[in-house]
Automatic annotation (TrEMBL), chains A, B:
SUPFAM superfamilies: FAD-binding/transporter-associated domain-like, FAD-linked oxidases, C-terminal domain
Keyword Disulfide bond found: no
PANTHER family, per database record: D-LACTATE DEHYDROGENASE (PTHR11748), D-LACTATE DEHYDROGENASE, MITOCHONDRIAL-RELATED (PTHR11748:SF111)
Oxidoreductase listed as a keyword: yes
Keywords: FAD, Flavoprotein, Oxidoreductase, Transit peptide
FAD-binding PCMH-type domain residues: 47-224
Pfam families noted in UniProt: FAD-oxidase_C, FAD_binding_4
Reported cofactor(s): FAD
GO molecular function: D-lactate dehydrogenase (cytochrome) activity; D-lactate dehydrogenase (NAD+) activity; FAD binding
Protein name, per record: D-lactate dehydrogenase (cytochrome)
Lineage of the organism: Bacteria, Pseudomonadati, Pseudomonadota, Alphaproteobacteria, Rhodobacterales
Length: 468, 468
């Protein structure tokens, strides 16, 4: 079982840092048990490893102060956004200080002419989109959960819109970062593109707090499209649905979303959201553009779906119908968990070249059936990324061991197909051995970079970088 | 004058490495004067610094062998593609071995279902697009020159299509790299997206050969659009043209290209390509999509152009007319050089937030006029990136000094506007001081990464990283 191993604690350093930080931060410094437990706890299935204290900084200067104290005493620093990580990112295996960004939640600037904005890391994506709406702008990345933008940047998040708008990697223009030495740096200018040296923005995005703490984010924005339409269509098999997806992408239809739900997910969503979708593999789509263009896209797609045996094709530009459908999709995680209320969902996150998607999803489903698991499957299939969610009784060691074996088997399968063990959740604690399987010698370069940037390993230790 | 300073040579190491490599590579190992001079020579205005030998490897294994020998003897290794760099990237200020990738020019795989391909670094973009045409696919990044894809990745190149398709940063999925230790690593899988650890692909793209040699590139491809249209329109002033560009982007019209030529560039292009474009600031555009969509886009844009005083708006879907117009645009560099045949063009490359573009271009033009320079201006204005090309008599020290001062002034201006000193050409030798002005303390992190990955500084020394 790849579990969250405890790491050696620097007790002397921790005691010293706690003393200094308590002095410096007063009320913003918290050590109560329940608050510490909350900050180790996420939606992950990994065990909770709590920090020694939680601090709520108000600005970059305070973050830098915290990191400087921790650097002096060689104490771990763990960034925290909304706690929606699925891979143990906020666990504190060696103790240390959790830096909760909740109170750094200001939208600092919106440059509507340049289609960008500058936000603090605690701003959530819903908060940003509500703020932008009046200006006719939106930020497209949508991982489902109302995550913080700092956390989304740190884990290179994506979600349902990535097929059209890319991931956080493609939508962060620049970052302000507090380095492991407590210095404040800016990784790039606000220019739309640049060839100015190493892409530190890209290096920080997805570094999971192991190279520094993100204190400000410059994001690309999009104009709210003139029109949106959404569509749904059912298929006899996952294979047929995937074929339709491939053809849609190859034809260059600029779908904004193209999501797969397997039969079990559809059943879960119907029950949870009180819908009556046909109980068969389902594709949900969204199209963005001019009124003509979204109609044309929906109809082109309808034709492709029919070719691959799609049935019950419907499309609409009604905002109400659209929102209902996408709310149901976003609730799929909770709808799935409700299929076995006392169990824990273990979300897998493989992403494969789209030509191998049907084969990979089918193999996963067969194996889950053979194991007797209740395990709905949803997928951001335009990117080749899908999640299975085996619902596991964590008090049953045999079941847990079988689930763990399944996760490993699926990661290996995806890697063997030229894919990755994580499309969007990150490596965190649990996937470190698979990172090595996936990238081999390249991980040595990651280790070298980590050691150079954070020689005392104080930034989020036990994440990404494999144990020796 | 920021010139190409010579760096100390490791004579003993170079002699030893030359002996071993000559033995190992036979005919592929060349030390003739003219071939060495050719390999230091590029379109740059910086002085030529020639390598001690040029090797033409056939495969990754041979590249790894070269690097291992150079690592053993601490001898510089400089990658070479087609020599179209404008910033002295292939100069050898401390001597060493130039690795010419010309013979590693195979297209290794095209995965049409996944819209990606795998190529060797010596494949040029035109070669790739000719190869892909029958499959209905294309690779969109187009820097004008028929550059090698390895060189384009190494410098984070972009060009006319970036406004729609992004830069090399957005279009490289994975790389095979020979590290400074001579190990072969793969930076990512073929999955469309991934959160698997640090983004080494992104780190290598734009690292200008200072962290390793790229030996294989996995690229995203696009389906050839069903239809393309191109358009042109003239304006009274650069400001009006820029306003029209801003409005076009804000309205979400998915332009594939939107290029500005100032009056002098139009005159140069008319003379060079035998055209009769109106002698006024000009926007050239291209639209990609369905037949309906490209017509709609062209007409929407026409309306916007009119609002800002655009005249002579014309659009066409004729491939012949389109190609003629874009060939003229691509020849603008040579057309400009022809305005003063014995002079050298010093291309600037600033990129600013689009809201500051008109101000920046106007200021540059005024200053160039005041200096009495012949200096056409073209711009990838959808991204806020533009090039001025002062044509300088390199034998006139006073003129050279004035040009150098202008370059510095313009870089400083762009940086003060929240922009960058290089949108797409890279830092190379000449822009190192501006990198520090632009990113300050972030450059320390670049230095730390460089030292960790290449502790002996053998990979393309004297580029990107500032002198102590």
């Amino acid at each position: 079982m790849v579990q969250a191993t405890d790491l050696p604690r620097n007790e002397i350093g921790i005691t010293a840092a706690l003393g200094v930080l308590k002095q410096q931060f007063g009320e913003k410094f918290q050590t109560g048990n329940s608050i510490r437990e909350q900050h180790g706890h996420t939606t992950t299935w990994l065990k909770n490893q709590i920090p020694d204290a939680v601090i709520f900084p108000q600005n970059t200067g305070e973050v830098a102060e915290i990191v400087k104290v921790c650097a002096t005493h060689k104490v771990p620093v763990i960034g925290y956004g909304t706690g929606t990580s699925l891979e143990g990112h906020v666990n504190a295996p060696a103790g240390g200080i959790c830096v909760d960004m909740t109170e750094m939640n200001e939208i600092l600037a919106v440059h509507s002419e340049d289609l960008d904005c500058v936000v603090q890391p605690g701003v959530t994506r819903e908060q940003l989109n509500v703020y932008l709406r009046d200006q006719g702008l939106f930020f497209p990345i949508d991982p489902g959960a109302n995550a913080s933008l700092g956390g989304m940047a740190a884990t290179r998040a994506s979600g349902t819109n990535a097929v059209r708008y890319g991931t956080m990697k493609d939508n962060v223009l620049a970052l302000e970062v507090v380095t492991p030495q407590g210095e404040v740096i800016r990784t790039a200018s606000r220019a739309k593109k640049s060839s100015a040296g190493y892409d530190l923005t890209g290096l920080m995005v997805g570094s999971e707090g192991t190279l520094g703490l993100i204190t400000e984010i410059t994001l690309k924005l999009q104009g709210i499209p003139e029109a949106m339409s959404s569509a749904r269509v059912s298929f006899d098999s996952i294979g047929a649905a995937c074929e339709a997806v491939m053809m849609t992408i190859q034809c260059g239809i600029p779908v904004a979303r193209i999501e797969l739900l397997d039969t079990l997910s559809v059943q879960a969503v119907n029950a949870y959201s009180n819908l009556t979708l046909p109980e068969a593999p389902l594709l949900l789509l969204e199209f963005h553009g001019s009124e003509n263009s979204v109609a044309e896209q929906a109809e082109l797609f309808g034709g492709i779906a029919e070719e691959f045996g799609g049935t019950g094709f419907e499309w609409t530009t009604s905002a109400e119908d659209r929102n209902k459908l996408w709310q149901a999709r976003h609730d799929a995680y909770w709808a799935s968990c409700a299929l076995r209320p006392d169990a824990k969902g273990i979300s897998t996150d493989v992403c494969v070249p789209i030509s191998r998607l049907a084969e990979c999803v089918n193999a996963a489903q067969e194996r889950l059936d053979a194991l007797g698991f209740i395990a709905p499957i949803v997928g951001h299939v335009g990117d080749g990324n899908f999640h299975t969610l085996p619902l596991i009784d964590m008090d049953n060691p045999e079941e847990v061991a079988k689930a763990d074996e399944f996760v490993g088997w699926l990661n290996d399968l995806a890697i063997s197909m030229g894919g990755t063990c994580t499309g969007e959740h990150g490596i965190g604690q649990g996937k470190r051995p698979y990172l090595v399987k996936e990238l081999g010698g390249a991980v040595d370069m990651m280790v070298a970079i980590k050691s150079a940037v954070d020689p005392d390993n104080i930034m989020n230790p036990g994440k990404i970088i494999p144990e020796d």
